[in-house]
Structure formats: C-alpha cells, structure tokens
Amino acid sequence: MDLTLKIWRQKGPEDKGGMVTYPISNISGHMSFLEMIDVLNEELINKGDEPVAFDHDCREGICGMCSMYINGEAHGPDRGVTTCQLHMRMFKDGDTIHIEPFRSDSFPVIKDLVVDRSSFERIQQAGGFISVNTSGNTQDANSIPIGKEDADNAMDAATCIGCGACVATCKNSSAMLFVGAKVAQYSLLPQGQVEAKDRVLNMVKQMDLEGFGNCTNTGACEVECPKGISLKNIAIMNTEYLKASI
Amino acid sequence: MSKLDSKVPKGPLADKWTNHKNNIDLVNPANKRNIDIIVVGTGLAGGSAAASLAELGYNVKAFAYQDSPRRAHSIAAQGGINAAKNYQGDGDSNFRLFYDTIKGGDYRSREANVHRLAEVSGNIIDQCVAQGVPFARDYGGLLDNRSFGGVLVSRTFYAKGQTGQQLLLGAYSAMNRQIARGKIAMYNRHEMLDVVKIDGKARGIIARNLETGEIEKHSAHAVVIATGGYGNVYFLSTNAMGSNATAAWKIHKKGAYFANPCYTQIHPTCIPRSGDYQSKLTLMSESLRNDGRIWVPKKMDDVMAIREGKLKPTEIVEEDRDYYLERRYPAFGNLVPRDVASRAAKERCDAGYGVNETGEAVYLDFKSAIDRYGREQALITKGDKNPSDKLILELGEALIKAKYGNLFQMYEKIVDQDPYKTPMMIYPATHYTMGGVWVDYNLQTTVEGLYCIGEANFSDHGANRLGASALMQGLADGYFVLPYTIGNYLAKEIRTGEIPTDGPEFLQAEKEVKEKIDFFIGNKGTRSVDYFHKKLGKIMWEKVGMARNTKGLEEAIAEIKAVREDFWKNVKVPGTKDEFNQELEKAGRVADFLELGELFAKDALLRNESCGGHFREEHITDDGEAKREDKDYAYVAAWEYKGEPSEAILHKEELEFNDVELKTRSYK
Amino acid sequence: MSGFITSSIGKKILMALSGFFLMFFLLQHLIINFMSVISADLFNETSEFMGTNPLVQYLMQPILFFGIIYHLVMGMRLDLQNRKARTSKYVMNKPGENSSWMSRNMIITGITILLFIALHMVDFFFPTIKAHYITHEHLDSFQMVAAKFTNPVYFGIYTLAFIALALHLLHGFQSSFQSVGFNNKKYTPTLKKLGNAYAILIPFGYFVVAAFHYINSL
Q: What pTM does this model have?
C-alpha cells in the first residue's frame, strides 16, 4: 500500500520542531509499524537526508522503549500493543498517518520522536523498592505464603513496562497509572508493608515535583496502556496515600 | 603461549565454592568507600551486580545504552528461572541441577562453575521474593513450579510469561535504592566504546553520551562487563535491536580472550520471517511444545498447493502429514531439546517441505490438544462421555486459551491468523550465545581487574543452554558470585587511591575512539549501515547457522572479510557526531560484528565435531544425529586477538570431568 | 497533613469529598423542590424552616458555601495546572477514542453550572436572605418560584443548566469513588450504573419541577 506520513521532526531539545510530510510506497500489511519507519529511514539515508530518530529496542512489546503517538493515540489505533507490535494491516492504502512523540512537559523531546523519560526513573528512585540487601541468607522464599489472588494482582500491576503511554495520552499528562502500578504491586505483597507509608509519600512527592498533571479519572490511560494496567491501581495508591497521611 | 589458569579451587566439587569463599581476601568497609567499580550493562547480571556491589559499599558507576536499566533485553525472557529448591519434592537437588546443566551443555562447560551455579540457585529465589518479585503461587500461597525441556523435575519458577521482566525489575529496584543513596551513579543512554588499561590492569572506560555525542572518560579500580550476547551478528535474532557485542569485542581487542564463539543457540519456535524488511524475530515460548505437534505435509504437491494458497493446512488429512519429530524421536517427541528440534525443522525445509512463501516454516498444530482437552473437560465439567464436536471445540479452546492465551494473541497480532483455527507457523531463530569472553572461576577475564558476567561470558552453559538457565546464571553471577570474587582482587587495590583520567592511557584511548567516530561521519560512502549488517547476517545464517561444514565455513570467512572491507570503504553515516545519532551508534556496533563474525566462523571451522548448538555436517552418527569428539575437543577454545580475526591465536583450556561421566545425548 | 492538602492525590481526594457533599446537597434540594409540585403550603413551610432554622442557617449553609467554593476554585486551579503539564500540544489528537466527553470537559460543564448558580442565587437566594434578614417581610416561596417559571427563556436556561449538571455528574459520581480509593471488582460495575442513574434522574427531577411550574403558567 501507499501512504502519506506526517512526522514530527525536531533537531534537538532547543529546536522548535514541526511536522514534515513523507510519501511512502509498497508497504506490506505484514510489516510492523517500526519496520515501516525502517524502510523510510533507509530511503532517507540513500537520498542523503537524515533518518527519523525514534526509540525502540526489543521490538516485541516488553522493553517499553518505543513511544510514538500515531494518528492521535499513544502506540496507535490498536489496543493492548506497543508501537513495535502495531502492524501496518491496521491501515489502508492511501491513508495519511500522523506520527508525533509522546508529549508532556515532563518528557522533553531529545530529537524527533525520542523523548527523555528520566522523570520516571527519579520517581522509582524515590521509593520504588523494598530495602533488602543481597546476602544469600534472607529467609526462605516459601516462608511467607501469599494468597494466589494477591500474588496475581501484584503481578498484574508489575507488568507495567514504563513506556509512558499513560502520560502521553492523559489530557492532564498525569503519571498516576505508572506510579499507582508500582505502589499497588508492593502494597499487595507482605514484603512491601514495612516501608509502605514512606514509599507512597515519597513517590507521590517526587511525581508532583516532576510536574506531571493531576488525575481526573478520565480512564484514557487504562485504554491506551499496552499492558492493560487497571485504574484499580490508582485507587489503591489513593487509599495508600490517604492511610499514610492520616 | 600463556597457559590459561581457570583458578578452580582444589577439593571436592561440592566444597569448592564454600572453601573458596572462606579463603579469599576481603575488603574492609572503610576501604570499600574509596574503591570505584564500573559496571557496563544493566540487565540481570549487570543490574544485580551493580546493586550488590553498591550495597557492600563500593562506589559503582553503571552504564546502559537504553534510557533506563529496566529496558535491558533480559526483560524479554519469558519462561522462567531454574532453582534446585525441591519444593515439589520430586527428587531435585543441587547435584541434579548441576548434572542436567552439564549434560544439556553437551559436556563443554566447566564443572566447578556449573556446580557453584546450582549451589546458589536457591538463594536467587529467596532474594527475589524478598525484593517483591511476584512469582506465580498456588492456592496455598506457596511458590509454583513448571517443567522445562531436557530435565525430569519441576524446578522452574515463573511469573506468567514475563519472568525475565519481573526479575529485571527486582534488580532494577535494588539499583534504584542505591542510586537514591548515591552509591550508584547511573549513566543511561551511554555506550562504552573502549576499555582503558594501565600497567596491564583495567582502569576505566571511554563512553559516548548517546544524547549529546560527548566522549567521556571514566576511571575505576575494576571494570565489569555485563553486556549480553552477540546473537545480532546474524542480523535477525530474538535479541533486541540494540543488543551488541561492542563492549565484549573492545575488551577482546585489549587482551581479553574470547571463548567458543561458535556456540550459539538457535531456538526452534519463533515466528517465521515474512519479508526482506524483517527487522527482528519473535520467540514463541518453548512451553508451546508441551501441547503443540510439529509437522509438514508428506506430499510435495500439498506443499506447493499451500504456498500458492490453494490448500489450507486443515484440509490435509492425518495420513498426509509428517510429524517428523515424533517420527524421528519417539521417546521425547515434540519435546526434544532446542538444538535437536531446530535442526530437524531445517532438515525438512531444506528438503523443500517448508510451508510458507519463503519455504522456511513448519506447522505447530494444537488441533489434537484442543480435541483431547475438550473431551477431558466435557467429562470433568459436564460428565459428558459423548460430547458433540462443538462442545469439544469450545471447551478445548477455552483450556488452551487459559494456558497460552497471551502467546496466541501475540501470534495473531503479528501473523494475522487465528492459531485456534489454523496451525501456527514457526521456524528456528538465533536466540542466545553460549560463547563469550573467557573468564576464570572468579569471573575475571585474562586482563587483571576486568570481569565479565552473564551471557557476555562463556562459562556455564557449554555448547547448549537449557531453558530457564540464562536468568539463573545472570543473577547468580551478579548477586552471589562476583560480589565475593571481585573482593579478592580489590583487596590489593586499597592503597591505589583515586585514578586520574588525564593520564596518557586515557588520552590515547579517547583519541582512538574519537578518530573512529570522525571516520564514520566523514566517510563519503554510499550504503547504509543496515545494508552491511544484513549482508553479514545472511552469510552467518546460511553458512555458520544451524548446520555447518568445512566448505561453507571457509567461504564464510572469506565473504565476511570482503563485506568488512567493503564496509570500511562504503559505509555512509548521516548526521553529526555531536548529537543523538542512531546511525553512528549502529555503525560502531556493526564494525565489531564484522570482526566477531569472522572469528566465529574460524572457531566453528576449528571445532571439528558436533556438540550442542554447534553442528558440523561431517560429524554425524549413522542416523544423522550430532556426534561429539571428546578425545580431541573436550576443551574451551579461547582466542587471543592479534590484529585481524584470521590471525587470532588459540589457547586451550582442557575441561576436566571428575564428577560426571561423558555420555552421548539420546532422545530417541 | 499540610503535605496532603497540597499534594496531587490530596487535592484529588478533597475534590471527591466536596463532590460527595454537593451530590448529597443536590438530593436534599431536589426533595424540597418536589414539595412545590405536591403542595404549595408544604413547600412554603419547608422553605420557611430552612430559611430560619439556626442549624441550617449558621452551620449547614456555611459548610455548603465552603464546599461549593472549594470545589469550584480547586477545580479551576487544577485545570490550569493540568494544562501547564503539556505546553506543546499534539498536532493530531483523538481523545474520543479512549475517554468520554464528560470526563474530559468537567471544566466546561462545571463553569456552566457555576454561572447557573450565580443566576440562581440572584433569583432565589438573595431575595430570600433579603426577606429574612433585612426587610423581615413574609415571603411566599411558592409564588416566587412559580412566577419565575412563567418566562420561557428562564425555563430554557434552567433546562440547559440541568443538562450540564447531568453531564457533570455522569463523570463526577463514579470519579469521586475512584478518587477516594473505592474500586472493587464486585461493586464498582453496580456503582457505575447507580451513578449513571443518579446523574440522569436528579437533573431530570429538577427539570420536572421547572416544567411543572412552566406548564402551570400556560
């Protein structure tokens, strides 16, 4: 199929940036979206132009590196997928596709479609851990039974890949689904109880410092999340925060 | 010729590690504060090492090319992690895990290392649970296990199909705690481009800040390389796009020997290539082979009709299907080890029976499993002994969905076919590299103060790795081995003091790195980096892939050399050096693959036997199975760099087997 | 606790709590309004009680004002803050694909309701206060209400305000529960249905009262 791409090009953090139009032809429906960009980049290089910079790594939907806002949606029109898992069969011959970076003031653009998500790192550093040293003589793994449902719910929260689609898609650019998933994972496990109060207070404080917006429960994050992280995790975080504050 | 000293401690196998820990030197806590360690790579091995070393009190500088340690490719491991906990009471023990690993590795790994791996495996699970890793549990709240290929016990711990992700997030959280304490300085989006040696010891690295293009000098008392495997030498593999061998190759060029490069694991169940634009291959978990049956049509007419779209696989009757694994290996059937299953698929496709347009695919069929489960479920849930076809299908599909739903969905997204209705198409793909930087028992390379851990080293898996053992090795090295053994070296460094980065060695290394970058940017070439990478990958796959022979390997060596020369003449790198420039990053990585590939082929040519992932067509038994030559090849081939890959010098570490008997693997 | 009030989650919880209070107030207000449909006397008596009872006047009423003011001031502040979190807008955005119009436009429905409240105060609240505390004359509340709704423009404005209220509640009801951390596999689906019913029935009830008086005047 033949397509028209409108891609955000921005030379660096200080550059203003803008949309640039590229026609592209002979795209197969079996291609992944990023393979389509590979084809474009190969053409650009051969023509002597600069290829489009974009983040990607595992290309199987787990590393959380890829981060494109495609036709007005984070990771494009398909559900439950990252950009690298989006396939071109989702589009029709003659379509125009808008491609932009994940936008948020807390995710400044580095170049073209590449953004800086180190704000997520700092939130995790503020408390996204259980303080246990490596020793080889922590207690036996089976010494604390954990109910299957709690373990499964903790696992569901823990599947977050930290891609930032929740922030990109939220009209308020809120990071609560990301932070909620982390807080909920630990709050559901007995190991996480000891530091539960400090964890939620510190992580939320850092989240606010990073300039993310507030959550207004639109639920857009849950819909666009490639891993289907539930809004329930935000509710758990709210409860944990309230408990820690009073 | 220097003799390789593996430094394996004396004494009985089971006591070696304990005795060694009791006797090696320690660094006192006050001195640890004055010692810096660089860790390059932050996957399971690097991440766990960085966190543990920082907890001990060392100053750690960690480097990752991704924008976060959490994105290292360990995250993509699906199945699980082995540990000899014997929670299932099925007779597991450290010795059994040790034995299975040695045997699975086709007797090409070092006994003492593998036994130590088995010994610390249980600690890994304890540590991870303490960190909050949500392993799967049963209804009693205790940890659940599953079984994996090549073993007779259930010792695999798992977190859905995302075990690697959860373990990596565990190590990452431990790192975050140390980053917050200031004990780890984290350098994201940084790539190591060389190691700096002073008086024969590793003293630092040269790294490029990928965001700004700045070349940075970092010093330390020891350098740890944990940068994973080199599977991307094939261009197409299940590795991440950025996975590369640059750090490992740079240290090789500075004196670290590179061992057994020809040992590569080709995983049998990956989604086939669909066209020339293909950028990577996606793995479908090994667990699918528990219920899927692998086949190709018996008749060539059917193959042709399928390729032309005139016939559907479901229309081929049982008698016209060739379940070749069940035919060739009645004892293990579809559950033969990875190397055997991969080669059998290639054999059928080479004979012309491949079932997609490219001729490189076989079927993985769940029809009989759906049928069997459907009947079972009808009886169990409805007490129906004569269920209708509709009910069987409905109940059978529901059960398959519960077991493999996420994998089936992933397949459907990529291939656009419903695997409940029509068989999956699969084909083998490069997955893991057992070979790597040679290390001694302390995980130190042949350069003093330079360590190598995880997939990047060669140590524990011999010629073939068992499923769910990669995660185990990465975390064993990082959490429980390196933090001890590195102390033995650092105890001698307490008087060294801070290492300046303005000495001649640093300046020289920095100059060389900058010259290389200037060359790439300045070269007026005509071809993109990917063009060369794809060319290399094609040679590697066709001639140094699943089956190798003398003629093909000799051709490969010459061809790779030619591509390399072409690369240095004609490569084109757009953009500038002082910015985020992904083509420049790739150029440096492919340059290294082009050298490594040749050494790989050279090593494969030298190893005149078939063992594990290395299959030489000249060395087969009468019925076409792999044949080892223990008398001549029970050694580790460690290569010393001498300018060109063709000039590399071979050093042999003879492998001693005192506690196991060498046998032929048979799955018939 | 001071950190709580200024934190993102703290503000969110307080928005929800003030929302709960206002939703309760809406119900109570509607019940009294309905009395005007049943009997003019009953309505007048109740209005008299509400307008003179010290508990209502000196405790409930200030709390109500505080609740309304907090809810609207904080709502507007949060909206401004949220806008600042993304200064570079998407060239192409399709929020309709993943969220409801109501959830994204609380500020629009909210400001509409605010304007309505201002009008409503001028129409009913200030005259009542004036009658009770300044002129001390007897007030026929029923007559006052009935008189207002003879005007079709008034009826129209009120109807529009009730629609805005319904849209506001359609998101606000369930959102408040999520904000205070109530999200439960078993009860949340029912709660959402209940919320939708509340969001439609309450404004509809107000509309019925307005329509009753308008039709009566014809």
A: 0.96
